[in-house]
């Protein structure tokens, strides 16, 4: 769907110059119906055929040597993130569980150490507090991390919410909660951790995204979906946040010069049986658990992220996508193969506006990334309280 933002006549009335008035800007206001249908098709296809498409993949995923590598995994107390953290630690990586429920994470570590005892050296795993519903908490986490001056080889932005059927909720920072937890807060974390990632390069930022981004549409002037132009549903909130994440990641990947040694990838884990459906009505949850043939276990769902976080060939692939004319970052499918995100994710103009708007909303200057690459300090509006 498209609308004409201003007619030449209207602009003449407003006294604007005639050349400008002749320019008719067409603003897309929603996905076209073909894009919408394709989005549902991709989702249904993934749901029905993911097991067949990924049948070549071993489970669990064998990992390359990662003994001297450090990983930060957000939302690692449950579902896919829990599996990612455990498997990286068991493969010898140093893992930092960045979580809001630190007690749950410490209990998990205790259990994993007990299960692992006698199989090798104790797991090198620790917990740090991070609540993505608070941008102050994100800044505090990044400051604490950067102060340690330790290495960081992969930031895995896994934590996410999908409050299915719930009414719209606005965080205390003033943002729609899906947009904040799934996009804005991980974007802030990624930018603020750039100094550590640059110091440890080659390094990566891996965002756990979703096939459902292809049902998303982002209006950069209405990221909260509060203007009334679009009706809010939890589906709109979730899918928009996932699309915004791909758009932001694509611009970030391009802005990071090859010399910085950091690459950005988004990942689809597949349809996975986790707590993500915790807000569904009990009866739907029961049905969800009855279709295990189609749905991946968290271990199966962790494979594409583990691949994106550790596979040595991914670096070359991501670098090749930094070329002038390719508009999107790497998107790794649930079968660990590169895939193409939705047509809307290729919209360069909107991606650039999402980039600018995101930096504004997370309280960073528009040249934050360039300055951090140059080794300069950057101030964020958040983090003082
Ligand atoms: N499951 C699927 O079918 C599927 C499909 C596509 C994409 N994904 C994506 O996969 C990622 C992981 O989801 P999952 O399926 O594993 O769901 P999950 O079991 O619900 O796990 C989500 C994790 O995110 C954490 N989290 C939620 N809000 C947070 C906040 N404000 N601050 C910090 N951590 C927070 C949760 O912590 P608490 O335990 O403290 O709540 C939990 O550890 C998400 O990004 C999701 O969108 C999932």
Automatic annotation (TrEMBL):
GO terms for molecular function: oxidoreductase activity. Keywords: Oxidoreductase. Transmembrane segments: none annotated. It comes from the Eukaryota. Pfam families: adh_short. The keyword Repressor does not apply. Residues 8-21 have a biased composition (Basic and acidic residues). Residues 1-21 are annotated as: Disordered. Belongs to the short-chain dehydrogenases/reductases (SDR) family. This is Uncharacterized protein.
């Amino acid at each position: 769907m498209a609308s004409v933002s201003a007619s030449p006549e209207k602009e003449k009335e407003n006294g604007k110059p005639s050349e400008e008035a002749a320019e008719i800007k067409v603003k897309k206001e929603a996905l076209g119906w073909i894009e919408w249908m394709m989005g549902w098709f991709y989702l249904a296809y993934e749901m029905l055929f993911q097991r067949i498409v990924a049948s070549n993949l071993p489970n669990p995923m064998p990992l390359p040597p990662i003994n001297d590598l450090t990983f930060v995994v957000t939302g690692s107390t449950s579902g896919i993130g829990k599996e990612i953290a455990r498997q990286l630690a068991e493969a010898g990586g140093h893992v930092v569980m960045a979580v809001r429920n630190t007690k749950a994470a410490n209990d998990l570590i205790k259990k994993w150490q007990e299960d692992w005892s006698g199989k090798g050296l104790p797991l090198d795993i620790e917990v740090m507090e991070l609540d993505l519903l608070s941008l102050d908490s994100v800044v505090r986490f990044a400051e604490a991390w950067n102060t340690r001056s330790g290495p960081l080889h992969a930031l895995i932005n896994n934590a996410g919410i999908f409050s299915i059927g719930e009414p719209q909720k606005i965080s205390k920072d003033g943002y729609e909660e899906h947009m904040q937890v799934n996009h804005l807060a991980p974007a802030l974390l990624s930018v603020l951790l750039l100094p550590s990632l640059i110091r440890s390069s080659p390094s990566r930022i891996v965002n756990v995204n979703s096939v459902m981004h292809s049902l998303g549409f982002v209006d950069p002037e209405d990221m909260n979906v509060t203007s009334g132009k679009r009706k809010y549903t939890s589906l709109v909130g979730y899918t928009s946040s996932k699309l915004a994440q791909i758009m932001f990641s694509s611009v970030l990947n391009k802005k990071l010069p090859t010399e910085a040694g950091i690459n950005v990838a988004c990942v689809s884990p597949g349809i996975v049986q986790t707590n993500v459906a915790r807000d569904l009505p009990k009866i739907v949850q029961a049905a969800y658990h009855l279709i295990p043939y189609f749905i991946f276990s968290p271990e199966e769902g962790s494979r594409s992220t583990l691949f994106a976080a550790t596979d040595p060939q991914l670096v070359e692939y991501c670098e090749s996508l930094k070329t002038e004319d390719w508009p999107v970052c790497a998107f790794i499918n649930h079968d660990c193969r590169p895939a193409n995100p939705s047509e809307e994710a290729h919209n360069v103009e909107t991606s650039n506006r999402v980039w600018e708007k995101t930096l504004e909303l997370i309280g960073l200057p528009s040249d934050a990334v360039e300055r951090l690459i140059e080794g300069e300090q950057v101030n964020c509006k958040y983090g003082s309280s």
